[in-house]
Design a protein that fits this description.
Number of strands: 6
Strand order of the largest sheet: 2-5-4-3-1-6
Shape: globular
Number of domains: 1
Order of helices and strands: EHEEEEHE
CATH superfamily: Hotdog Thioesterase
Number of helices: 2
Distance between the termini: 14 Å
Radius of gyration: 16 Å
Helix content: 10-25%
CATH architecture: Roll
Length: 152
């Protein structure tokens, strides 16, 4: 993966995430986005030199638009990028695609607010975190194990 490509989280759809027809239950997409967010932020924190305790945020809005169903045993890549930055907030965009295809199965956005880890009130993003979010962990990938994603 080259440095211009967005970060992605690779995963396989498990049986328990699907209905009797093998189609992923809609609420599971929120789990998928959350897992991709966790791995993306692991790279952002490392790039910013910020520990998990030092850089805390809360998701205040999550939107998901479904395009086509994911199914049991599909391998999905969830591409994560920073859409916008505010003083205390940032918006991440997620494209969920079936590996080897380009059309998204779902598109999601999360609005996140940086919080002071002691008072749990809004706090300005540090310059280091802002820069790491702007870089967006380009060229990085992770799978369900937390290891670099492979070819499936």
């Amino acid at each position: 993966m080259n440095q211009t490509q967005p970060f992605f989280f690779g995963m396989r759809v498990r049986y328990g995430e699907c209905d009797q027809q093998g189609v992923v239950f809609n609420p599971r997409y929120g789990d998928y986005v959350d897992n991709a967010n966790t791995e993306f932020m692991r790279h952002v924190r490392a790039a910013a030199g910020a520990s998990r305790e030092a850089f805390q945020f809360q998701v205040v809005r999550l939107l998901i638009e479904w395009k086509s169903p994911a199914r049991f045993d599909d391998i999905l890549d969830i591409h994560v990028s920073t859409k916008s930055l505010g003083t205390t907030s940032f918006t991440l965009r997620y494209e969920i695609v079936r590996r080897g295809e380009s059309a998204p199965l779902a598109i999601a956005e999360s609005v996140n607010v940086n919080v002071d880890p002691i008072r749990w009130t809004k706090a300005a993003l540090s310059d280091e975190v802002r820069e790491a979010l702007l870089q967006g962990a380009r060229g990085k990938s992770t799978d369900q194990s937390g290891s670099p994603a492979g070819d499936g």
